[in-house]
Structures are given as C-alpha cells and as structure tokens.
Fold this protein.
Amino acid sequence: MSKSTELVIRITNIGKITFVKTTNKIIKISSTLIVIWLSVLITACGSDGTNSENTETINTLFSARYSHEVVRFNDGSGDKLWLIGGLDGAHRNDVWSSSDGVTWIEEITNAAFSARNDHRVVSYNNGSGNKLWLIGGFDGVSKKNDVWSSSDGVTWIEETGNAAFSARQAHQVVTYNDGSGDKLWLIGGDDGTSTLPGNNDVWSSSDGSTWIEETTSATFSPRIDHQVVSFNNGSGDKLWLIGGFEIDAFMALTLTNDVWSTSDGVNWVEETSGAEFSARNEHQIVRFNNGSGDKLWLIGGNDGITKNDIWSSSDGVHWTEETTSASFSGRYDHRVVRFNNGDGDKLWLIGGYFGEYKNDIWFTSNGVDWQ
C-alpha cells in the first residue's frame, strides 16, 4: 500500500475495505479506485485484491456508538437522516445529518441539551411547524425529564426542564392521533425508583411542554427497552407495544415477546402473549412497505444472544421469520429508520453494540437483503 500526502493520519483495513482519514474527511477507497480530493492522491489496495463491499458505508465520520437516536426530518432543505447523541464510551450531544445516508455532516458538536444516551427524538408539529423533539434520557449521572425542540437540528430550545412525567430512560415516544388530533405519546421506561424501576404509565402532549397522564398503570406489565410504533393492521390505526424487559414486584427482569395494541392510548389489548420471535429487548420495530403492503418489521436485539434476525407481520399478531441471519452482524440498541435517499424507500440500520460500538450503515429495499 502506498500513500502520498502529509494530510493522511490513519489508514485502516476493515475486511475488504480500506479507508483513509485526513485532517477533515474520511475517504473510502476500494482495491482499484483512485480518489483525488483536495489535490490529495491516495492509492490503496484491498486486503485480497478484490473490490467487494458489504455495507453502504463504513466511513461515517460520527464515532461508533449505541443508544443514540436517528430520525427522518426535513429542516427546510429536504428530508435527511439526523443522528443525535448516544454513547461511544462517553455520552454525546453531537448532531449529524445526511441527505443520502452515506455522506454525513456534523451540524453541531455540542448541542444545548446535555450529553446523553437512551433518550428519544421524534419529528412532530405542535402547531408551530415541524420540529425535532428530544425527550428524557440518561446523562451518565442522572435520568432526565427535560424536553427540547429544534426547527433546524442545530439550535435547540428547552421547552421544559422538568416535565410532569418522572425522569427516565429506555422509554418510548411516538407521534399518534387518538382521534383528538396528533400528539406526542410517552410510554413506559426506567425512572430508577426504588420500588419499581420500570413503568407502564402512558403520557400524552399536544404541545410538547404540557403533559397529561393518560393512565398510571396500563394493562401491560412495567417495562423498559421495549418498542412502540403506530400501525394500521386493517382495523384502523393503533399503537403497538412489542417486547422489552418486563419488571415484576420483586424487581426481577424478564425478556418478553408479547404484543399489545391500543386505539386510544389508554385501553390496551394483548394481541399475543408469545409471538413467534424470541423474547428480547433493545430490538427495533419499524413500519415499512417492501412492495407487498405495509408491515411491521422486527430487526435484531438481545434475547440472551445478540441477534441479527428479521421478522415481519402484516397484522401485528402473526410473525414470519424473513431471515435467521441478516448480512449485518448481530447487535442491540441500534437504530433502524425508513428513509428515501432519492433511490426509493428503504430501511436504514445505523450503529449499535456487539462487543464493540458500531458506526456501520446498512440498507435494504425489501427487508431481507441488506447491503
């Protein structure tokens, strides 16, 4: 391998891909590709002389991490993926964006909110325009119940430093219309109380600042690291809660694979106590149409073993295993987002953890074949 530039500070081989970090950019180079950038000529050779790539990109500039957030949001210059905070060995409050899923721009290194992980970020319009909303999390010292919003992903405003719900992490926040208009819904999570760290409370807010407790104790058991999504299985739009750690009165943690739904956020129905996929936490559930209609897709997680299996369901009750072992490595606390980068709607998987922090990026147009 040869190189000719004083700007190069590190060259690393990862599998069959070599990437080179200069003072302000990482450039991916394959075995026969010559990259010329800023008058820098770099030539590199893959480890086996072939030009084979497994991921959409390995040369992400953001640090490898998990327990971050990734959302789709339009800041006025088009839809982008936004990566916010997380844990890379230290807690982060950086914000990155990408219009194509491949090239990432650091929008701000230290946002106004404190560095944290296990927070939640959603895109929501509270009547004053669409914004990013960041809610709760853990800053390494304490759990949070602050709420922040941003219209551009860079400038963040604290809407409240002490929301009505208890400070927590590992909760879920989604946007959902229960028939009285779009709202933010916060469901469950860990507030670290000495009696029962997991919660099964449900809160809603129409403005992001004022929160109403819809129920103190929903029908499903208290839990953390679960997933909640909005999905129409043919009987109307509902919220669906799937899996996670449940916590009993003795503070014992049990992995679950139950599925619950609600049309009003208050009255929850157990659709199944044991779905076909193994009980797990820190998985991802997304709604996605792979060409055969809208389905729920379950991706990875931890059932005692770190998983890279893929499951789908058209009704939320019956689940089909699409693949036992996807191309990406097993992981948990990753993020999967539906996003169109100009080449059609796809699922995008970003980061996570399995023995090490990850910053690889994978995509699929059918839910099964990941690149």
Q: What stands out?
A: The chain has two domains: 2-43, 69-364.
